[in-house]
Amino acid sequence: MVLWLRMRRFFCDNETCSARTFAEQVDGVTSAHARRSPRLRGMLESISLAVAACAGARLAGRLGLVTGRDTLLRLVRAIPDPPIGPVTVLGVDDFAFKRRNTYGSILLDMATHRPIDLLADRTADSLAEWLRAHSGVTIVCRDRAGAYAEGARLGAPDARQVADRWHLWHGLAGYVEKTIRQHRHDLRGPEHDIPEPAADSAASPDVEQIAIAAEVDRVEAHAVVVRIREHFQAVQQLLAQGESVSGTSRSLLLDRKTVRRFARAGSVEELLVKQRDGRPGPLERFKPYLRERWNQGCTTATLLLAEIREQGYTGSYPALKRYLRLFRAVGAAPPATPAAPKVRDVTRWMLHHPDDLDDRERDRLNEVLARSSALARLAYHVASFAEMMTGLHGERLDEWIAAVEADDFPHLHSFTAGLARDRAAVVNGLTMEHNSGAVEVVGNGCAVSSPASRAAPPLPTRTAPSAPTAVPA
């Protein structure tokens, strides 16, 4: 439908006026300098906000509103920002303008879980300036970043800071994995222990010991391991000569974070744990079967390849030949024993609620904890923290920190030291119902449309065990 309007035109008698003529406007139908009606503009804005530019242009064309994606983008950019209004509970987190390059800060009203402002950077001064301009904030939900803590302290000194529980659990998980790596030898059962050499070891070599030694030699000869050793030695030498971290980074062409990690490591062995443990390859779960078949007399690689292919092996034939080469040289294979659990698997089992584990995972965790008193005590500390966090028992934090520091867990001591430095916010996070779950959802680009979708995901929990040598049931 085409609507023809007869409008009046007005002239301005003021010669200094930049606009000499004025056209009469009809409310709701026309607007100045517009090529579409307010209702059509509103429809295009709604479409572009809902499905974005390209998809919005296709949908508008189907509805008879022919337009382009650039036009929809211009309409979205022209929409004025809604007024912020009073904010009492503020959520703050960083987001990436360009990942690993440029970051800013996103602010949310935690009462409505809606973004209210974006800051160009993630510094303390920017957050403090915003808080001074918007008084009335009584609670600030944040992660463990020191810049946001300092900005909230400067901009809203009377506001209570709340550390996010997910970040607390995530931080604990990292230190738990490091502690398990420190005690990774306890993951090996008696069947994995290297037996004592017999009196006639020269005549009959220990196949298990030779296999383990060959695996160690293979890992040590890997290019990554050699490079880490060389970089560690070079970093320690430059730092001993008085060079700074930045200077060492420039001299060795390494990232400053890498140099700092090498500088903090007590020995190169700490840096090689991941390379030595490694992720299991496609042949890993078939090794016990291959050892058993080799000891039964089947030593043909092609036949063994066909057998494990039927069981789901997806690796290559050369990988199988390299693994069998040692057995062929020695003339026998080590006993067919199940592989020891990986550090990551034990970490996952320990951080999950026992009800979320299957029977096999629960049994294997029980075996590990029964074999290692250190890991049993670690599981007890993890369960205690989970119970404190999910039950909002922040008053138990000092007691938990004291119990952890009484044990010989250096990595957990680093975690408790960080909690002590940010004690007030951590206690609030473990006591109050507020958290930064909504900030994380919006900051990661996820849509937030309903109270159910805005709720923070449930945290993994564990029931505190009655004895330090038992897995909570």
From TrEMBL:
Residues 90-189 form the Transposase IS204/IS1001/IS1096/IS1165 DDE domain. This is Transposase. It holds the Pfam family DDE_Tnp_ISL3. It comes from the Bacteria. Signal peptide: none annotated. Residues 449-473 are annotated as: Disordered. It comes from Actinocrispum wychmicini. NCBIfam families: transpos_ISL3. InterPro entries: Transpos_ISL3, Transposase_DDE.
